[in-house]
Queue: 4 jobs
Job 1
Amino acid sequence: MRRSLLWAAAVAMAALAGAAAAQDSGSQNPQARDSLGAGADRQLEQRKTWEPSAPPSDPRDFTGIWEVPNPKIDLKQDNGSDPPFTPGEAKSTQRMIDAERAGNVITDAATQCFPHGVPRLTFAPYPIRFVHQPGKILMLHEVAHNVRIIYMNRKAPPKNTPMSFLGYAVGHWDGATLVVETTHLNNQTRLDMHTSHGPQLKVTERWTKQKTPAGFTDLVDVITVDDPDHFTQPFSVTRRFAFRGDLEATLWTAGVSEYSCEENNRNVPDAAGIVTAK
C-alpha cells in the first residue's frame, strides 16, 4: 500500500523539521546556532527547496500546497500534557495504547479507507492543497483524497444536517485568521490513533500565516477540541504546516500524489478496532 512509502518519507521529514525548527530559534542565538553546525545548514537548504518561491502575500490567501514537516498523530497539548480525559475515555484510550504495546495493530476509520475524521485528518503527514472559491474554501488532502469544504457564507450548518465522517464546517475571518468550526461528526472515527469521541464533538480551528525567523512561511493551525462526553473541558493542540511550492513542479499538475488506501489493505479489525498480532 502506498501509505507505507509515504510514512517512511514522513518520518524522514520529521527529523529534518526538528533540526530546521532548532535552527530557526538558533538564528537568534549565535551560541545555539554554532552548536547545530553543518547539519542545520543542510536543513536550511531543505526548507529552501520546499519554498523556492513565496506563497501569496495576502494573509487571507492560503492558495497552494502545505504540509506539516513534523507529523504527530496524537492529542498531546502544546505543554506536553495529556488531554483532560473523562474517566471513561481515559480507560478507553489506555486500552488501545496497551493493545498497541502488546504488538497489535490499532485501526480506525483511516485504516479501513473511510474518511479520517476531524482533527485526525489534519494530523496526517501528507500535503494539503487549499483552494479558494466563491463562498467556500476547499482543503484537498492527498491522504485518501479526503476533501473538506469550509462554507464561508454560513454561520451555522443547515437544519437537519446529517452526521458524517468529516462533518460540516463553517468559517469566517477574524482579522488575518481563518476560524473554522466543524460539527456533525459521526462517532466512527478517532481523534488520533487511540482516543474516541461522541456526537457532541465540536472542533474549532484557527489558521494563520506566520513567517519563521529564517524567513519561510508557515500556516499555523490551533485546534480546539470540545466534547463534554469524553473530556472534562475543551483543550487545544497546535500544528505548523510548511509551504510546499516545490510540489507544484514535481508531482504532476495537481501537486499531490495518487493515494490508494484500498490497495493491499490487510488491517481488518475486530469489533474493538484491534488487529490481533499473530
Job 2
Amino acid sequence: MKSFFKIIFSLILISFIIVNIKVAFSSHWQFFLIYDYNDQGFSLPYNDVGDKISDDFPNISQTALPMKYLKARYLINMDSINKAKNMLYKAIELQPDHMAPIQLLASIYLKEENIDSAYILSKEAFNKMPNHNIHRATYFEVLRKLKKVDEIDVAFDLVKNNLEPKFHWYDYIFSKIKLQNNKEEIKILINEFRKKFPNDDLDAIEQLENMTNVGSESYNLFAYFSGIGDAHFKEENYNKAVEFYELALNFNKESYLLYENLAIAYDLSENYPKALDIYNLVIDKFKPLDGRVEFYKGLMLIKTGKANDGCMALSQAVNKNFFLETPKIAASSAYISLCSNN
C-alpha cells in the first residue's frame, strides 16, 4: 500500500515539475512576444514563435492576452491569412469573452472587403470594450464603408465622455466629414472639442477643420499631391516639388504650410520673384506666428542683395523665437551673423 502511495505521489510531483518547467519555458518566450506586441513589431522569426512557444498550455500570456492571438499577428505579417484566421477562431473558442482576437479578425475581414463579417465582429468588440481605441477605429471604419451615420452617432455617445476620449472625437469628426460634411455641424463639434481639450496639440483638429472647408475628396487629392511634392523637396528636386505643390493648391488653398513650402521651393530653384510673392502672401493672408516664413524670406533677400529688407524680415523671425530644427539654427544666430553690420 505504501508503495502505491509513493507511486501516486511521485507521479503528482513529476506532473507538477513538468507543468512548472513548461510555464517557465513559456514565460521566457512570452517576454519577446509581449515586447513585439507593444512595439507593433516582429523581431522573432515565426519558426521560433510557432515551434518554441506553446499556445495550448499556457494558453494565456502573463498579460492575459490569448497566446493564439499573439501568434496570429506573426502569421498575418507573413501573409498566412487563412492560418491566422483559424488560429484566431480557436482563440475565441478558448476565451470567448476576450475581444482582442475578435477585433483582429474584424480588421482582416475589413481588408478583404468582407464588410458583413467585419461589421458583426467589430461591433461586438466595440460594444464589449467601447473605450479601446483600436476597437473604435475598426468599428468606425466599417460604419463609414456602410455609410451608417446614425450608428456612428450612437457609438460616439458611448465614448465621448470617457477619460481619454480625444481620439474618439478625431475619428467621429472625420467620419462626419466623410459621410455628410455638414459644415455648420462640424464647426459646432470642433468648437466643442477646443473647449473640451484647450491644452491639446491642435494640429490634428486643424487638419480636420481644413478638410471640412475644402471637402474630403479634395483634401485627399491635396494630401496626395503635396506628399509627392514633399518627397521631391527632400530629394532637392525643387522644380518637381514646385510642380506638385502647385497641383495640390488646386484642391486646397487654405494650407499656409503648403504655401510656405511652395515659396521655399521657388526660392531654392532660384525663381526669386515668385518666391517673394508667395512669402508675402503667407505673411499678409495667414499671419503665421512661428516665424518660419520671415526667416526664409530674410535669407533669400540677403542672398539676392537686399540686405536691409532681409535683416528686417530676420528680426521679425527673431521676435517670434523661430528655431530651425534641421540643421539647428536659431533666427537670432542668423541675424547676428548676417546683420550685425547693418
Job 3
Amino acid sequence: MTAEIIKLKPTRPCPICGKPSSQQHHPFCSGRCQDIDLNRWLSGSYVIPAEPVEVDEEDGVVTRDDGDEE
C-alpha cells in the first residue's frame, strides 16, 4: 500500500511574485514572499481608505467632516 498525499488547499499563484503557491507557505510560494507581505502590512502599505472622523471629547459624539452626527 502506498500512502496518497491529500492536498488541503488548491494551488494558486503567489500574490507577491505569481509563482505557484506551496502547501507549507499557502497562499505564498515561499517564506520570502510571506515576509514581504508581512512587511507591507507592518509598514502601512496596505491601507483601507476612509474619511477623517472627529470625536467630541466632552459628549463622545462622533462627527464626520460633512457635519453629520452618528
Job 4
Amino acid sequence: MKPIETITKVDQVRHAILELIFSGTLLPGQRLVEARLAADLGVSQATVNLALQILHDQAIVTKILNRSTNVSRYSEREIENLFSVRLILEPAAAAAASRRLTPAGARALEQQVDAMRRAARESDLPRFCLADYTFHQELYRITENPVLIQACQAIAAAPFAYILCDRPSALPTDYSSLAEDHQLVIDSLRKGPEAAGKLVSELIAAWRMHSVRALESAVETEKTYAYR
C-alpha cells in the first residue's frame, strides 16, 4: 500500500493556480487578484498570498510589492537563459538525488510518471504539466540539500517555456514520449550519480534545442499570418 500524503491547503491552492495557467485559463501577463482567487477557491486571502509567493519564487508568477501579481511572461531570450541555468543545476540535482534515493523517493517519482502517462492518454495538458512540475519538485526534495533545492526552484518555469512564452502553437504533441523520458530519469537515478547526471544533462540539452526551434517556428508562423 502507498502511504497517504498530506497536502496542505497552500499546496492545494498552488496546484489549482498552476492548473489554471497550464490550461490557458490564466494567460501570460494576466493579473491575479488575490481576493477573487480566495473567493473562487474558498480559502483565505492569506493562503492565496502564500501560494503565490511560492510561485513567485519559482518564477511562474511575478509579484510586484504593493502593486500586483501577474502570470510570468517570458521572451525567447529569457527562456534560453532559464535553460542555460537548468543545464547546470538539474544534472547536479539528479546526481545528488541518486546518492540520496530511497524506495519511498523512487515511488514518489514513479507516481508522477504514472500521472503523466494517464494525462497523455487522455490528452489532458494541465494534468500532464502539473505531474511534470511535481516530478521535478520531488527530484529536488530528494537531494536534501536546501541550497540546491532553492536554486532549482528558481528555474521551475523552464519546462513550461511554451506556455509562459505565450506560444501555444509551439506546444509539444508527443506527451507519452515525454513521460517515458521521466521514467528514464528514475532508472538513471538507480544506476548512480554519474549516470543520472549524464542522462539529465542530455535530456535537458535535447529539450532546450526543441524548445528553441519550436518557439522560432511559432514566431515565423505568426509573422506569415500577420502579412496575409
